[in-house]
Structures are given as C-alpha cells and as structure tokens.
Write a structure and sequence with these properties.
- Chain B: This is NEDD8-activating enzyme E1 regulatory subunit.
- Chain B: Keywords: Ubl conjugation pathway.
- Chain B: GO terms for molecular function: NEDD8 activating enzyme activity.
- Chain B: It comes from Cyprinus carpio.
- The complex is a heterodimer of chains A (488) and B (518).
- Helices cover 33% and strands 17% of the residues of chain A.
- Chain A has 488 residues and is an alpha/beta fold.
- In chain A, the strands form 3 sheets. Chain A has an 8-stranded mixed β-sheet, with helices on both faces. Chain A has a 5-stranded mixed β-sheet with strand order 11-15-14-12-13.
- The radius of gyration of chain A is 25 Å and the shape is globular.
- The two termini of chain B are 51 Å apart.
- Classes of the chains: A alpha/beta (488), B alpha/beta (518).
- The interface between A and B is large, with 88 and 93 residues.
Chain lengths: 488, 518
C-alpha cells in the first residue's frame, strides 16, 4: 500500500514538482528495460556494457544494503517506483553517471556512487594533485602529488571497489563536446568555480530538445550540484528546462569583492592590502623572476618574494599581521576546506543521484543548505525559476540603453549586472546582412581591432531599436541572445 | 619579526584546515585519542574524516567478523578481509589514509570490555559508538558519564541518520560566531579613546584629512555635539537615530557651489549609526557563565576556563565598571593608513591593558587555591578576553532522562531498539520478515508511547518504512553522518566552534534535519 502521495504532499506542496516527478518517462523506461535510450546518436548500439575489470562474480551479500531500497515496496517511494530485482542490474550495467571534479567533493562522490551500485562512472578534472589537497581528497597520497586528479582517483576507486569502472578525463569541461555529455543519465558536479558551473549548466541546457515549443522530457539530463566552503555547503537538484538552473539563482553567488585601488595604492590599513599591493603593483613593476613571468601562487619562491615585500610595505605603514600563510591566502584566494563538509555535501548529492536513477524516492526539491559552525543546521527550500533567465528561459534578454550610450556601457552592464556576471563577453550582431563582431576581448588582434568600438555610441555603430545582439562568454557554451531596446 | 619562510610538509598538507581552527586547534587534534566502537560504514566514514585532518590516534573496538554485506557498503573493507576481524581490517585501510596518525584495534565486543575492564574507556578524548544496541550504549553511557568523558552515539538506519551527544560540560572559548557585533564602546568611551577623539580636530581639517578620518571618530565627534543638545542622552529610537544621521550628513564638506563632496567615510558613519550606538553590555550568555556555580566556586580542581571566567568577572565588577575587557579589534573602514592604525592601536592597547588586569585577578585566584600562576598562560587569558562576549558552555543530559518530545523518527529508532531487545534481531532484515514484523514493531511503538505517557499517533507508514529498512546502512547516509559526526568530534577535541546539544536527526528522503535537546 503506497502512501507516496501523502508523503509527497507532506513535503512538497508544489504542482510543478508533481509534474516534474511524473514527467520523466525516460527514467521509467530506463528503470525497467535494459534497452535503447532516446538520446543516443543514430545507429549506435545500445549500451550493453560488461562490467569493466570486474565480472559478475560478486561475493555474497555485496549489495544487501542497496537491495532493500530496490526490491521492497514502501510507503514513501516515488509514485513511479516498482520493486524489482532488475533495478540493481540497471544501476550496475547500464546507468552512466558523470562526475565533474575529482577534488574535495569529487573523491567523495566517486566513493559514494561506487558503493551505491553504480559502475559506469566518468570523471572530469583538469587539475593535478597538490599537497594541500591531501587533508580531504582521500584518494590521493603524497606520492601522487603532481599527477592528474581524475586518473589517480579513478585508479583508486577501481582498485578498491570490485567491479567499478571509473573512466578518467584529464581535461577541462570545455574540451569535451555535446556528444560526450549526451551519453550520461545524470551529471553530478563537485566544482569550485561558479564559471565552470554555469558552463556545465549551459551545456545541459543546450542538449534540450523542443518540439513545437514543448520540451521533450527524454532530453533532460538531471544536474546535481554540490558546493562547499569551510563549514558551509549546499546541494541542489536541477532538471534543466524544468526547474531553477544555476543562472536562475545567480544572486546566490555574489561577485567577489576586491579592495579599492586607492586603498591598495596609497592607503593600506590591513595586512591584506599590503599583499595586494605587491601582487598587483609591485610584481609587474619589478618582474622579480624575469620579463613576462606571471605570479604563480603555487610556486613557494614566488610567494616568498611576495611575503618579504609585503612585510616591507606593512612596516612602512606600521601594519602588523602579515604572515606567510596570510600572504598565500590572499594571492591564491584560498578558501578554507575540511574533509567533513565535503563528506556531508557529496553524500547528499549521491543520495539524490541514487533516487533519480532508481526512482526509489522523490528527489530533493530542490536546494539544501548546510552549516555546522554552531551545532548542525540545514535548510531546504525550492529555488524558483527566473522568468527571464539568461540561460534557461529561451527568452531573448532585454537591453535598455540610450542610442547615445557607448558600447562600453553595454559591456559594463554585461559584466557587472548581478544576474549576468559575464567575464569577458564577445558581442556580435548582424549588420547589412553580414555578421559583425562589435567587441571581442579574448583574441588580442581582434581586441585591438574592435577596441575603438567601445567609445562609439550604439547609434554610430549602426545599431537600431530591436537589434539582436549575440553574446558569447566563458560562462556559457551557447551564445546568449539580447534584444536592444532604445530608450529616450 | 620572525621570517618563517619554509613551511613544513605537515603545514602544507593541513593548510586549508589550519585556516579554520589554527595551529592550536590542530595541536589539540594531534593530542587526541579517539575510540570508535564498530567499524561499520558509518564508523569508518566518521574515522576517515578524523584521520584525514590528523587526529593523534584512534582505536577501533569491534568483535565482529567481516561479512560480505559489510564489504558492500564500506570503503575501508575489501573482499579479501571477509571472515577476518572487522576492527583489524578497517584499521589497516584507515591507517593508510594518513601516515601521521596511529591506529589501533581491539578485537572484542564493547560489552565484554564493559564486563571485564570498563576503565579501558577512560583513556580516550572521545568515544564514538556506532550502530550499538540500546543495552550497550546505556551501559557505556553510564561508564563514560562517571568518568566525565564525552560520548557520541551515531546510527544510520535506512535513510535516517541519528546522533546523540552526551557530555557533562563542554566549554568553548572560540565559538567563531558569524556576524558578531563590534565592541566599539562609543556609548561609554574609555579614557584613552576619549583622549584620542579629542585630539582629532575634525571641524578644522583640510578636505583630505576630513574625508579620511575613520567613521568611528566621526560618530564620536557628532555624538558629543548631540549630547550637548540632548542632555547627554544617546539617540534612542528610530526618530532620534535618523536625526543623528542627518546631523552627521550636515557635517559633510561642501564645495564652492554648495554641493556636498564625496566623503565615503561620512557615508560609512551614517550607515553604522544603527549598530554603533548599541549600549555596551555583558551578553546574556556570558552573564550566565559568570553566574554559574563552577565560576563562583573556584577550587584547585577547577578547569582553567572557570578560573579565567572568574577572573574576568572580577574585572567586570571592578576595573571594568560593568563591562567586559575591551575586545581590541575594529573593522576595516575608509581612512588613511596613519589615522586608522592610530585608532586601531588605541583599541589594541586598551585590550592589552584590560587583559593584564584580568591576569592579575587570575593570578590572585590561583594563589588562593594553592596553584602556581603558570597554570594558565598569558595566551589563554588573552584569547579568553578577546572572546569574552562569545563564550559558550554546552551541557548535555545523560541518557537516563525521559524522552519528552514528539519526533516520529526518533521514536521509531527507540522502538527499533525495543524490538531488538525483545527479538534479538532487527525488524525486516530478511524479505519474508518484512510483513510479519510490522505488527511486532507496532507493538514496540505502542509500548514505548505508553511507557513515556506520550499521546502521539505514529502513522503506520513509518512502521512499514522502518521494517522495510531492515537495518540497512546505505553508504550515502553513512557518509553524511560520517561528515557530521566527525566535525562534532573535532569541536569536542579542539573546544572551538559549538557542538550540537544533544540529538540530531537527518532524513535523507527529504534532505532535512532537526536538532532536539532531549
């Protein structure tokens, strides 16, 4: 006797959730048949994968803990759930999970997924192992310092959990394309960068298929996103195209505050100001390690130099408190981290992956916040979709400017607006039937050529009311469309 | 000034956490010896999160042999250990995580140890008991309570995580509060602050100096003006504070055309009026600590927390004129370096002076109970004074108190314990048991409710769900608890940040949690 409705009602009062929960037929199909998926490329064979380096000779009882949730009926299960012995087979043989990041969260996620029955896991991470990772990224050892995180993590898990096949990708997420991402049932992120999150969010949104304006649910790849900072963390479930996406709630990630230049240049008061002075002003001037040598926060010689100079600067102004640790923290913008917070958030994310992959329970709807500075505190709420979200609303974004406004103002708006927070937007448009780049920063020669446009007015540039501007940026894999509205 | 340019590899390894609890917190961790009872997934996940940050040593007590099921949800057991003792197998793979930590194991059930040598448990900084039947954790709780040792009970049961903390008294000097109010004393400026403010001739400053005078001084100056017109009374309500803000705004310099100049420091002053004029007083938490019996009656056995608390209390009642020692920090603000540093030093010097007076009181106190003055260090006293407004004491009841709340999940866990007591097994472990155990479990629930005279209705759905769980310990729930419990353990060991008091429940179905004080 299922009472999942009541449970649902108890926790979720929202109609959208009910729709969402019922509208995932692909997962239901996946759950009960081991067949083809709609989102596979033409002519591909169904994914019948053999267990990688593990054959099916698991020992007795290996999956007893998991089976109870797949083979037994229960009062709080998802309305689509039906107990079956095939569910475990699906998890193990067919379900493909992508883990983004093999760091603090990534290591935990790989372990959690492996011990929950998932066998086909890919992990992407562009970093190599640093000694400061070892206090929490437990798949790495001192001897692994310098090696790619994804590869070492995959090796460790495959070795420790028999039958698990983690495939590493020592790459940036931007180096992989649509055809790569499309193969996964669920993507779970353990990233430390908002830009990367937004990109991943944009990628999954770009995979959505709309027929006559109606979203095809089988093109949805759920995104579980986790983040931590010191003793705080959050876990969220995103169903691209249906629930709030990363950009819908961009205000939850306020832009980083930098110290004002005048403070750094002439009125330091804190030890941090002294370090920033050395980093921003002194280093480019003195080039202590050669022309063109950029400050590398991971190079102890560089940090040592910055530290000494910061001490000198501080002494000039009678400021105390400059230490090596503080210096490195400022230069690298270090965020403190411990094992426990990562363990908690990754666990919550992995629980959601399990729920969605198996329909065992209704997934989190849709955002949980955690903080254990004072006791343990969690808060769970439903983040709302933004009607005009620049990433997922499919509505061209409104830009309102005077025709006499300069292009620079538009550029500033794109970078400073809290809902957009672009990093280095490239603006193009169609003029006289031809594609024209108005401004692009990331290629030096084009930047030089288009720089004069910044001081021209929109009218001078030939733009008209209603003009469509296409903006590309590192925060999204797709261009964002803007509509220019002239105000008077 | 010391130029420590070379970081040890330990400092590098622990860098990210040292920024949270400091070198002294790390030292406390490295001097700790934690006992884990039962190396189930929950247990090893907790220990993992203690070994990684460098706990001094751990001992696993576990009489069980590794089963196939154990290996399935536990990252620190492999199939090659099936049939071997679980304590030993887990110790090996946990030890391997961090060479700085020393791991030990005892192949014995806790009940046997309690029978033969309960004092075995006295040596630990903290005992963590995982997946224990009620009878065991009641016995253990009693032994540890008598020994004054902290006890953390954890359990993963299906999709439910549970923690219970039992410690008689846990003091916290460094609670690290978020968003603490500043200690500026603008309502009761100490002499040195008054003199410093007086020495600033704000009204006759050149623009450059005028615009770069710290807002604290601006507020102090305008407060004097206000006092002269308001009978030396602070602005009290919204209306008066607004008038005060206008007074400050009127002091912004204007140019030749009469338009106000851009004086960010004045804007800061205006913005901070709301909080800057809050009356200085001893917060209720600290007041409570001063009034505690342990603070009043200092003996040679008193922990230094209470000795220093008594010393601070003496200060408050004498030299402090009803106020705590000055904290000594000010927030950053628009100002030129010289003015800011000078002002900062006024507060810092006063804080040092106050701490020195507190030291004298503490010394006298120690002498009066026959203890050497070195029993508490200057460092300790300074840290205490700096955190005087944020002190916390956590006292958790022993297990032998009556449950008086209504959380269904907690009741279900207690009912499960009862079931185990009666049937020597947990409900629904095997498929064929699920249906028939529902009624048996229901009887346990009802008897529990009756015993505690609880007029609660526990829906059948929960009874069904808990039978369904069949005492499963899914890894992701164990991992969540592993992170939660480990951080609570670190709080207990380092006396930094505030532990929960005293019952925590996590529901992985809804991703919600609650803390109750039972």
């Amino acid at each position: 006797m299922k009472n999942s409705r009541e449970f649902q009602n108890f926790y979720f009062e929202n109609d959208v959730v009910r729709q969402v929960v019922i509208a995932l037929p692909r997962h239901k199909v996946a759950h009960f048949t081991l067949n083809v998926y709609d989102n596979m490329a033409e002519g591909e064979e169904p994914m019948v994968v053999d267990g990688g380096n593990g054959d099916r000779s698991d020992w007795q009882g290996q999956w007893d803990h998991v089976k109870k949730f797949l083979e037994r009926a229960g009062p709080f299960t998802h309305p689509d759930f039906e107990p079956s012995t095939e569910s475990l087979q699906f998890l193990m043989d067919t379900c493909k999970i992508l883990v983004i990041g093999a760091g603090g969260l990534g290591c935990e996620l790989l372990k959690d997924l492996a011990l929950s029955g998932f066998r086909h896991i890919h992990v992407v991470d562009m970093d190599t192992i640093d000694i400061s990772n070892l206090n929490r990224q437990f798949l790495f050892r001192p001897k692994d310092v310098g090696r790619p995180k994804a590869e070492v993590a995959a090796d460790f898990v495959n070795d420790r959990v028999l039958g698990c096949n983690v495939v590493p990708h020592f790459k940036k997420i931007q180096d992989l394309d649509e055809s790569f991402y499309r193969q996964f049932h669920i993507v779970v992120c353990g990233l430390d960068s908002v830009v990367a999150r937004r990109w991943m969010n944009g990628m999954l949104l770009s995979l959505l298929i709309y027929e006559d304006g109606v979203l095809d649910p089988s093109s949805i790849i759920p995104l579980i996103d986790g983040g931590t900072e010191g003793f705080k963390g959050n876990a969220r479930v995103i169903l691209p195209g249906m629930t709030a996406c990363i950009d819908c709630t961009l205000e939850l990630y306020p832009p980083q505050i930098n110290f004002p230049m005048c403070t750094i240049a002439s009125m330091p008061r804190l030890p941090e100001h002294c370090v920033e002075y050395v980093r921003i002003l002194l280093w480019p001037k003195e080039k202590p390690f050669g022309d063109g040598e950029a400050l590398d926060g991971d190079d102890p010689k560089h940090i040592q130099w910055v530290y000494q100079k910061s001490l000198d600067r501080a002494a000039e102004f009678s400021i105390t408190g400059v230490t090596y640790r503080l210096t490195q923290g400022v230069v690298k913008r270090i965020i403190p981290a411990v094992a426990s917070t990562n363990a908690v958030i990754a666990a919550a994310c992995a629980t959601e992956v399990f729920k969605i992959a198996t329909s065992a329970y209704v997934p989190l709807n849709n955002y949980m916040v955690f903080n254990d500075v004072d006791g343990l505190y969690t808060y769970t709420f439903e983040a709302e979709r933004k009607e005009n979200c620049s990433a997922c609303s499919q509505v061209p974004q409104d830009l309102q400017f005077l025709p006499s406004a300069k292009l620079q103002e538009v550029l500033d708006y794109l970078t400073e607006n809290a809902s957009l927070q672009m990093k280095s937007p490239a603006i193009t448009t169609t003029l006289d039937g031809k594609n024209k780049t108005l401004y692009l920063q990331t290629v030096a020669s084009i930047e030089e050529r288009t720089r004069p446009n910044l001081s021209k007015t929109l009218k001078e540039l030939g733009l008209v009311d209603g003009q469509e501007l296409a903006v590309a940026d590192v925060t999204t894999p797709q261009t964002v469309l803007f509509k220019l509205n002239f105000i008077s | 000034k010391t130029m420590t340019d070379h970081k040890t590899s330990k400092e590098q390894k622990y860098d990210r956490q040292l920024r949270l609890w400091g070198d002294h917190g790390q030292e406390a961790l490295e001097n700790a010896h934690v006992c884990l009872i039962n190396a189930t997934a929950t247990g090893t996940e907790i220990l993992k999160n203690l070994v990684l940050p460098g706990i001094g040593s751990f001992t696993i007590v576990d009489g069980h042999k590794v089963s196939g099921e154990d290996v399935g949800n536990n990252f620190f057991l492999t199939s090659s250990s099936i049939g071997k003792n679980r304590a030993q197998a887990a110790t090996e793979l946990l030890q391997e995580l961090n060479g700085d930590v020393s791991g030990n194991f005892v192949e014995e059930s806790p009940d046997k140890l309690l029978d033969n040598s309960p004092e075995f448990f006295h040596r630990f900084s903290l005992v963590i008991g995982v997946q224990l039947p009620e009878s065991t954790y009641l016995r253990l709780g009693s032994v540890l309570w008598e020994a004054g040792a902290p006890f953390l009970i954890c359990r993963t049961y299906g999709l439910i995580g549970y923690m219970r903390l039992i410690v008689k008294e846990h003091t916290v000097v460094e609670s690290h509060p978020d968003n603490a109010l500043e200690d500026l004393r603008l309502d009761q400026p100490f002499t040195e602050l008054k003199n410093h403010v007086e020495s600033c001739d704000l009204d006759n400053m050149e623009k450059k100096d005028h615009s770069h005078t710290p807002w604290i001084i601006v507020v102090a100056k305008y407060l004097e003006k206000w006092y002269s017109e308001h009978n030396s009374q602070l602005p009290k309500n919204y209306k008066e504070k607004e008038a005060f803000r206008q007074l400050i705004r009127a002091g912004i310099l204007t140019n030749e055309n009469g338009t106000p100049e851009d004086e960010e420091n004045f804007e800061e002053a205006i913005k901070n009026v709301n909080t800057a004029l809050n009356p200085t007083k001893v917060p209720s938490g600290t007041e409570g600590i001063f009034n505690a019996e342990q603070c009043e009656n200092i003996t040679s056995q008193s922990p230094s927390f209470w000795v220093i608390a008594h010393g601070v209390r003496d200060f408050v009642r004498n030299e402090g004129n009803g106020n705590l020692p000055v904290r000594g920090t000010i927030p950053d603000m628009i100002a030129d370096s010289d003015k800011f540093i000078k002002l900062q030093n006024v507060y810092r010097d006063k804080a040092m002076k106050d701490a020195a007076v507190v030291s004298k009181h503490v010394e006298a106190l120690l002498q009066s109970v026959g203890k050497p003055p070195e029993s508490t260090s200057e460092q300790e006293i300074k840290l205490f004074c700096k955190n005087a407004a944020f002190l916390r004491v956590v006292r958790c009841r022993s297990l032998f108190s009556i449950c008086d709340s209504e959380m269904v999940l907690y009741l279900m866990l207690r009912s499960i314990d009862r079931f185990y007591q009666q049937h020597s097994r947990y409900p629904g472990v095997y498929n064929y048991q699920v249906e028939e155990d529902i009624n048996k479990l229901k009887l346990c629930v009802n008897s529990l409710l009756q015993e505690y005279s609880l007029n609660v209705n526990v829906k059948d759905d929960y009874i069904h769900e808990f039978c369904r769980y069949g005492a499963a310990e899914p890894h992701t729930v164990a991992a969540f608890l592993g992170g939660s419990a480990a951080q609570e353990a670190i709080k207990i060991i380092t006396h930094q940040f505030v532990p929960f008091n005293n019952t925590f429940l996590y529901n992985a179905m809804s991703q919600t949690s609650a803390t109750f004080q039972l």
